[in-house]
Amino acid sequence: MPATAKSLGIDQWSVEDRLRLIDEIWEGIEDQEQRLEVPQWHRDELDRRLAAYRADPKAGSSWEEVKARLTAGPGTGR
User: Fold this and answer.
1) Between the chain's N and C termini, which has fewer beta carbons within 10 Å?
2) pTM of this prediction exceeds 0.70
3) Rounded to whole angstroms, how far apart are CA atoms 66 and 69?
4) Domain check: are 18 and 31 in the same one?
5) Residue 10: closest CA among 22, 18, 2
6) What is the total count of domains within the chain?
C-alpha cells in the first residue's frame, strides 16, 4: 500500500511545514527532469496545437483573457 499524507502524519503538520516538504519534493523532481522522456503522443499533440494556432491565431484566447475570466468568478457573464 502506498504511503499517504494521512498514514505518514503529514496531514497534521502545519501549512508552512507541508509547503516546505512540497518544495523539497519539487527540487528532487527537477534534479531528475532530464531523465524523463516526453511520450511521442505528447509531442504529436503539441505539434497539432501549434499548427492550429498558426493557422488561426485569433481562434484562441490570450493568457490575459483567460486569467480575467478565471478571476472574474462565477455569474459575471464573462
Assistant:
1) N
2) no
3) 5
4) yes
5) 18
6) 2
